[in-house]
Design a protein that fits this description.
heterodimer, A: alpha+beta, four-stranded antiparallel beta sheet, 5 helices, 4 strands, 53% helix, B: alpha+beta, five-stranded antiparallel beta sheet, 3 helices, 5 strands, disordered C terminus
């Protein structure tokens, strides 16, 4: 082959041009296409994985819905025992409850007064404990009946802070004071919407 | 002198090899071109299908997203309601059963012991980062008779071991036992008894950090 021949020179030029074109095609079209292919394949794998998780979650909807309804019903029942303030006042309702429990029991209630409010959780919990102190005079058995009535009529009411002092002049009637603690909403306006709807109805 | 005259034109020169060089070159070039073309076609078709699959998956995800979010919300609301239920239930379950404890106290106090004072303190304190009821019962009384010490010990033991106290009391101890001052009766003793109840933990919801949403 004569390298000086035009045919040879044309052939070399054609090869160089071809390689150049191929390089350009590779750089601007083929490599981006390969990169795009890899990227899209990875995205598809990730999306399919996410879709699988989403479908699994969606499939649990009936179970979650049922549990939600059961929980809601339980809370509606229990919420009846959680007092709400009347114009910001809890004591009125609580005193009425205690006196109603005292009823015909021979317990002489001298006073019912605010004791304290205890936060259960430091991080903005749902509930707090509202405590009132009751003072009175009665025999031990009458006190026992009153305690039974107070705790029996409301499963969320708790007795504590009991102080019984025997009286020398009257052994059958002791000086009694005790604390009655209620579970109340930390913020009644923030309680679940379904409870507030029920109240409106 | 030998002269060699070659009358054959270059184009008529035959190669001694069985395969023509021209053919090899042409075949190589053609094969390379075809392979390159196939490669390019495969890349573009693959890229196209991958893009279509990605778009389809994205569309499916977008369609499923609202339902998924509503179920996620429902799940979150359920967790909140369960926390609420647990808080209420545990509060109710941890309240000391004072009706039975007070009735039980009547039955375990020996006949020759008279209680003069009974005090119950209940605080709500943090125990292991959880709110808990901490209850202490103090009893003051008088015991008469020759076996006053035995009777007070019996009361102490009953408050530790007998129902209903054994379910609530962790520790009972006579803190003071001495002769009554300024009393006419010789065998009269006064005592202080302290009972510490088992710590009753209230419900503390577990704080779960939400997953980062993409």
């Amino acid at each position: 082959m004569n390298i000086k021949s035009k045919k040879f020179q044309h052939a070399v030029l054609a090869v160089i041009a071809g390689c150049g074109l191929f390089f350009l095609a590779l750089y601007f079209f083929i490599l981006p296409a390969i990169s795009s292919w890899k990227e899209n394949s990875a995205k598809v794998t990730e999306t399919q994985k996410k879709l699988s998780e989403m479908r699994q979650m969606v499939q649990t909807r009936p179970v979650i819905q049922k549990q939600f309804e059961i929980c809601q019903a339980a809370i509606k029942t229990m919420a009846g025992n959680i007092p709400l303030p009347v114009l910001g006042n809890y004591l009125l309702g609580m005193e009425e409850y205690i006196r109603r429990c005292a009823g015909d029991i021979g317990f002489n209630i001298v006073s019912v007064a605010d004791n304290d409010v205890v936060e259960i959780s430091s991080e903005g919990g749902l509930f707090k404990i509202y405590r009132v102190r009751v003072q009175g005079r009665a025999g031990f058995n009458d006190f026992l009946r009153l305690v039974t009535s107070i705790q029996g009529n409301n499963p969320l009411v708790s007795i504590s802070g009991i102080n019984i002092i025997a009286r020398g002049d009257n052994p059958s009637a002791h000086e009694l004071s005790f604390v009655v603690a209620w579970l109340v909403w930390s913020e009644p306006a923030r309680r679940p919407a379904f409870l507030m709807e029920d109240k409106k109805n | 002198m030998n002269l060699h005259v070659n009358l054959i034109v270059d184009s008529e020169v035959r190669n001694s090899s069985r395969v023509s060089r021209n053919f090899l070159v042409k075949a190589t070039v053609t094969s390379a071109a075809v392979l390159a073309l196939v490669f390019v076609v495969v890349v573009f078709v693959g890229s196209h299908f991958a893009r279509q699959a990605m778009l389809f998956s994205e569309q499916e995800r977008k369609q499923l997203d609202p339902v998924f979010r509503s179920v996620s919300d429902l799940r979150r609301q359920l967790a909140e309601l369960q926390d609420m239920t647990n808080a209420i239930t545990v509060w109710s379950r941890t309240r000391p059963d004072w009706p039975s404890l007070l009735a039980g106290l009547q039955s375990v106090v020996p006949a020759n012991i008279q209680l003069t004072r009974m005090t119950v303190n209940e605080n709500i304190n943090q125990v292991d980062n959880t709110p808990a009821r901490v209850v202490t019962l103090y009893i003051q009384g008088r015991a008469a008779g020759e076996h006053a010490d035995r009777d007070v010990q019996e009361l102490e033991k009953s408050l530790k071991e007998k129902p209903p106290f054994n379910g609530f009391v962790e520790h009972a101890e006579v803190k003071q036992f001495e002769a009554a001052k300024n009393e006419a009766q010789e065998n009269l003793r006064v005592f202080d008894l302290e009972c510490r109840f088992k710590i009753l933990k209230l419900f503390q919801p577990v704080k779960v950090r939400p997953k980062d949403s993409k």
